[in-house]
Design a protein that fits this description.
Rossmann fold, alpha/beta, 45% helix
């Protein structure tokens, strides 16, 4: 398949989970894809599994100097960028009373500040008709205990989808957001929960979900592809992919 042949894509946080599934979909359709991660092992595995049309590199999505270097690398390797999928992010499960300034800053830096400057630095490489997709979360509209700072950051990111869409409209760059519900990516373990706790949380989410199941990374990938390439008359929007949890 070559629907996206000749297209170039950058996916931050693309070495695992939803980002990796999206990279695989784009590559299978002929695109050249650069993915970033913060763990060398996952970077190496992603490079091996995605193949010769992929470039897997280290980049910290919360570091402004890394974002500057990433823009330079995209310019060097691709010259231009057709799709920017700003996917890197992470939640921490911390009760409100126990929240620290350190964790709060980490959540805002990674999930809001980093994406803001990633778009700022990469937009100059994006031609007319290109697209930005941001990963938000149903936590931006649902009041969920233990993730207050994460939810606030994702709500800020939802707002950015609108304001950046307006800012970039004169350049004919579309900006939209995909909003995942619970997805089978192992994110609970990355957020610091034990396996037992993560399993219990996801069981509760499954039972609360209107579709009574957990989503798959490939379902996010299809939504991102739609926003990136097919939704040519859509900008500033958010597409929930959550089994109806934020809607019903």
């Amino acid at each position: 398949m070559d629907r996206y042949k000749g297209k170039t894509v950058l996916i931050t946080g693309g070495t695992t989970g939803m980002g990796f599934a999206t990279a695989k979909l784009f590559i299978d359709e002929g695109a050249r894809v650069m993915v970033t991660g913060r763990t060398q092992k996952t970077i190496d595995v992603a490079q091996s599994e995605l193949g010769e049309n992929a470039i897997a590199i280290y980049s910290d999505a919360s570091s402004l100097s890394d974002i500057d270097s990433l823009a330079d690398t995209v310019r060097e390797k691709f010259g231009k960028l057709d799709v920017l999928f700003v996917n890197a992010g992470l939640g921490r499960f911390v009760p409100f009373d126990a929240m620290t300034e350190e964790v709060y800053d980490e959540m805002l830096d990674l999930n809001a500040k980093g994406p803001y400057f990633t778009v700022q630095k990469l937009a100059p490489l994006m031609p007319k008709g290109s697209a930005v997709v941001l990963t938000t979360s149903i936590a931006n509209v649902k009041g969920m205990p233990m993730i207050s700072a994460y939810g606030a950051a994702k709500a800020a990111l939802r707002s950015l989808a609108r304001t950046l869409a307006a800012e970039l409209l004169p350049r004919e760059i579309r900006v939209n957001a995909v909003s995942p519900g619970p997805i089978a990516t192992g994110i609970g373990l990355k957020a610091g929960m034990s396996k037992e706790m993560a399993d219990q949380v996801f069981l509760q989410m499954k039972e609360s979900n209107p579709m009574k199941r957990i989503g798959q990374p490939e379902e996010i990938a299809k939504a991102v592809a739609f926003l990136a390439f097919e939704a040519t008359y859509t900008t500033g929007a958010e597409l929930p992919v959550d089994g109806g949890w934020s809607q019903l």
